[in-house]
Amino acid sequence: MNASAQSSPAGVSVPAAKRINAISPGSNAVINVFFILYCCACLFPILLVLSASFSDENAIALHGYSLIPRVWSTAAYHYLAYDLHRIATGYGISIATTVIGSLAGMMMTALYAYPLSRADFAFRGFFSFFIFFTMIFGGGLVPWYLVYTNLFHLKDTMFALIVPGLLMNAFLVLTTRTFFQQTIHSSILESAQIDGAGEFRIFFRIVLPLSLPVMATIGLFYTLAYWNDWFNSLVFINKDSMVNLQYMMYRVMRNLQFLQANAQSSSSVGAEEIAKIPNETVRMAMCIVGMGPIVLAYPFFQRYFVAGLTVGAVKG
Amino acid sequence: MTFGRKVAKNRYLLLMMMPGAIYLLINNYFPMFGTVIAFKSVNYSVGILRSPWVGFDNFKFLFRTSDAWTITRNTLLYNALFIVVTPIIAVTFAILLNEVRNRLAARFYQSIMFLPYFLSAVVVGYLGYSLLSTEFGFINTNLLKPLGADAIAWYSEPKYWPFILPIVYIWKNIGYSTVIYLAAVIGIDNEYYEAALMDGASKWRQAISITLPQIRPIIIILGLMAVGHILNADFGLFYQVPLDAGALYPTTNVIDTYVYRALLTLGDIGMSSAAGLYQSAVGFVLVLTVNLVVRKFSKESALF
């Protein structure tokens, strides 16, 4: 909306007409109150988890989750600190797969989209259909799983977190192609060709530098897809040392013992000690630790995302 | 030009496409050919290729179970509900947001509304748990208890989930749809409204007679696209949010979760591949049909 709001015809050029047509102050107030309430509903569960993670376990046990901690405590985070090594590993795997996957995905997307945008490319029809067909028909989970496990043996490797399903998104390829068609004028390419520049040189020296906005947008889409991915881990990862951040959150929700400190304490100490493990608050602290980066980065990336979504129609 | 000459002339462009083309071959086309395993009785000891053919046996077994009906019904009903409710709410939000006088406030509301879309399904599962946990959840301890009502075991009572899942779905996804529709609303030429204003049209009248007809094509196109994918459920929503609770399967199991569980928890390749192919094949026919309808309605909006 941000980009389009500024370019809206009413925004700058004819403010008078807009003002006359504006809703009454009363309606405006009602609408504002409505959206404020809805925004509270959007944030409420997030604040609930945040509050629980800073609560005393006994207060939760007695009074349940509340918006403001009844008794403040950072015990849950101290508890997580025992597993700092494991959480750091999870972060490391998430960051590594996100960076590698997004860069590779952006590159492959641009390299596939660019020839499709060229009217003089002889195999344009075939390769357009080749990618388009994958958007309307798929083999389903089972053969896909068997290809990666039985043919390529990707189970429990970093490749399993980068390659299957996520590496290249057909929708983004077609968006990028449309962008190239609209912005890269064929006369630029022709004059480069006359100057004797090869195809790769033209692509890396002319096309890519002119396409930085769209590259940033698709990079953002890939980054989010990789960072939020838990499905590939669910399907391909059994080894505890290969667990990324999202999957670690999933495992902790299932069983708090996934965190080592808990597993150790429950084997070495008596039942009385186990009862003291702050189950609920540690879970919620884990959620905050896992969700933190996205929520903190959100204010900075969201408008680029909105701009990317409203970039225009995409056709096959 | 011969094929060989064509290849030679375009060799650099072809070379550029190779990484992507090979990836599509592995990630998408190999599995398509792999759907033949739905007609086999897979035996790992002799290998998938040499496993015996069994015709439609896997499908017979699948459709003899009550699961086939349950997962089809759940998938269709939930998706149908989402397809109907999403544009109603999102278009309303978009029109209202566009009327907010303070643009900064409107932008702020949109940003907050869009936030849940960026949370992973695992996180949404946690958020749901903080509200619904039987012992400590906010609803049981801080809403029902003060009212004197009994605690509800949300994670073992299937009857509540046809309400919970759509609420979660709307909560998570409505910001996304609102952004799309708001862009369409903002794009409407202001002259229409100026003319309506001269005729003394009220805001309500303007919304019904100008805004809705103007954005009708995008509403219909997005709706039809969703109909084409009505057999594909949002795996994260149906798997993570109910925390994979077995007691809830009657109202939370959809085709995608069924295929996943049959494959990875039961190891039943025959059944899961049959269900998967059933989903892909019917889905494909649906997409083609929907595209035909879209072409009739608006040619330039059709996928192909």
Which stretches of chain B are poorly predicted, pLDDT < 50 over at least 5 residues? none
Strand content of chain A: under 5%
The domain tally of chain B reads: 1
Q: Work out the helicity level of chain A.
A: over 70%
Radius of gyration of chain A: 25 Å
C-alpha end-to-end distance of chain A: 25 Å
Report the top-level CATH class of chain B. Answer: Mainly Alpha
Oligomer: heterodimer
- Number of alpha- plus pi-helical segments of chain A: 18
**Structural class per helix/strand content of chain B?**
mainly alpha
> Could you tell me the radius of gyration of chain B in angstroms?
25 Å
Order of helices and strands of chain B: HHHHHHHHHHHHHH
**CATH architecture descriptor text of chain B:** Orthogonal Bundle
Helix count of chain B, per DSSP? 14
At the fold tier of CATH, the topology name of the largest domain in chain A is MetI-like fold
Keywords (chain A): Cell membrane, Membrane, Transmembrane, Transmembrane helix, Transport
Subcellular location (chain A): Cell membrane
Organism (chain A): Cohnella zeiphila
Family (chain A): Belongs to the binding-protein-dependent transport system permease family.
Briefly say what this structure is.
The complex is a heterodimer of chains A (316) and B (304). With 316 residues, chain A is an all-alpha fold.
Describe the structure.
The complex is a heterodimer of chains A (316) and B (304). Chain A folds into two domains: 2-75, no CATH class; 84-241, MetI-like (MetI-like fold, Orthogonal Bundle). Chain A is built from 18 helices and no strands. Chain A has helices spanning 2-7, 15-21, 25-53, 57-63, 75-81, 84-117, 124-136, 141-151, 158-162, 170-183, 186-194, 199-210, 212-227, 231-236, 245-254, 260-268, 271-276, 279-309. The longest helix of chain A is centred in the N-terminal third of the chain and has 34 residues, at 84-117. Chain B has one domain (56-301): MetI-like (MetI-like fold, Orthogonal Bundle), CATH 1.10.3720.10. The relative contact order of chain B is 0.12. Chain B has helices at residues 3-9, 11-34, 57-64, 66-99, 103-114, 121-132, 138-144, 161-186, 190-198, 203-228, 235-240, 249-252, 255-264, 269-297. Chain B starts with a helix and ends in a 7-residue tail after the last helix. Chain B has 304 residues and is mostly helical. At the A-B interface, α1, α2, α3, α4 and α6 of A face α2, α4, α5, α6 and α7 of B. Chain A: One of its GO terms (cellular component) is plasma membrane. Chain A: It is found in: Cell membrane. Chain A: One of its GO terms (biological process) is transmembrane transport.
